Amino acid sequence: MSTLQLSLKQARQLHLAAQGLLRPPKRKAQFCDLLSTLRQMSLLQIDTINVVARSPYLVLFSRLGDYPQAWLGEALSSGKLFEYWAHEACFIPAEDYPLLRHRMLSPHRLGWKYNREWMQTWQQEISQLLQHIEKNGPVRSADFTAPAGQKPGWWSWKPHKKHLENLFSAGELMVTERRNFQRVYDLRQRVLPDWDDAQHALSEEDAVGQMLRNTAASLGLFKPAWLADYYRLKRAPVSEALASWLENGEVVAAEVETLGRCYLHQSLFPLLEAIPQPTLTAILSPFDPVVWDRKRARELFNFDYRLECYTPAAKRQFGYFVLPILHRGALKARMDAKMLRKEKVLVVRQLWLEPEVSMTQGMLHDFRQAISRFARWQGAESVLLENLPAALAGEWGNGWML
After folding, report:
1. 51 burial via Cβ count (<10 Å: 0-12, 13-18, 19+)
2. Parallel, antiparallel or unpaired: strands 44-45 and 322-327
3. Number of helices and strands (H, E) in the chain?
4. Local structure of residue 230 (DSSP, 8 states)
5. What are residue 227's phi and psi, to 5 degrees?
6. Alpha carbon distance 244, 237 (integer Å)
7. Which of 22, 83, 98, 2 is nearest to 271 (CA)?
8. Which stretches of 220-320 are DSSP H helices?
């Protein structure tokens, strides 16, 4: 296949098709759809902020529509998923465990996620902890008390929390479930009794090669510079991989308006005859694969975005946990929202249109429908609006009942 010529709009559509964000689902979600969606993305990043639905649930909702949030926990506890460091902390399809095993065997290369000095200093206590788990079963950090006088804080972890996290990074413990979104840890040997490193582990070279392949498929259309970030690969042989893929037809080169040389994955070749028009309007998580690489989001969608929850309030440009809004193939707005769970109210604190985006009646309808679906899925009975642009306030007033 010769080099393709694509517009920026077509490039966006192909990327969104690969991510499952081009059109709404055709039917009500089933449990198997959760697994196939995760495999399509390769990774589902985990974050604990819960001003609205926590990120992994929201990423799935953007693609599946209404579904029971309990499904994610069921997939984890049944062994269809596992947790580990991939992009960051992620849910990963169980069959991809071999791709990350080399990181577990060399955890000192994970930076802050593993402290070799801590493991050596507390060797006896850590050994006792492993014996406790072997004898008594899975544990949470909450099962252990903090030392007297320890001050609370984001990084003021009690010793047992540090033990558990280091053992998790080293692959000695695995997360078997989440209770109130807290990790529950068990011995790897109990979770994967048949795993044998000598028989099943991949070399780092082979694992990295497959991670690059996964990334190419999940991005669909990509620039070479976008590949390594997906799995946080530090020494990725991107040029060599591309040469091999071009030779065997896994990808084809494409010249894209404003982006220059890109590549298209073979899974999208059938769409080239008639690229489907995007019809989905969806509220995205800040940790959605479409926007988690901020540079890629700027280049592909002209969407300049950063998460400001760790920025002092007075210095925020937008808000604490601002959600991108995808509308029919483009990122056209962002929304600061909070779910009041006891009151069953979704509060939209503010909504901003992107520069050069003009509100139309069609967009107005799509935004309202998307916000309503988003609110209803979280158990809201009404939507409360604050500080909206005049074009929206005149149409929507202070909100609506669901």
Report:
1. middle
2. unpaired
3. 15, 15
4. G
5. -70, -45
6. 11
7. 22
8. 238-248, 294-301
- Least confident among 52-56, 75-79, 154-158, 372-376: 154-158
| DSSP class of 115 | -
What's the token pair of residue 7? 């517009």
Angle, vertex CA 73, rays to CA 71 and CA 77, nearest 5: 120
Going by C-alpha positions, the residue among 349, 340, 324 that lies closest to residue 375 is: 340
C-alpha–C-alpha distance, residues 62 and 366, integer Å: 14
Q: How far apart are CA 28 and CA 31, in angstroms?
A: 10
pLDDT at 186: 98
For 139, which DSSP code?
Answer: B
Helix segments in 51-177, DSSP class H: 55-64, 70-77, 97-105, 116-121, 123-136, 159-169
pTM of the model: 0.96
Paired sense of beta strands 345-353 and 382-385, if any: parallel
Residue 259 scores a pLDDT above 70 = yes
Q: Which two tokens stand for residue 401?
A: 């009942």
Q: In DSSP terms, which residues pair with 352 in a beta bridge? A: 334
What distance in Å separates the CA atoms of residue 22 and residue 220, rounded to the nearest whole number? 12
pLDDT for 20 beyond 90: yes
Residue 156: pLDDT above 80?
Answer: no
As a whole number, mean pLDDT of residues 120-145 equals: 95
Question: What tokens does 191 get?
Answer: 């979770």
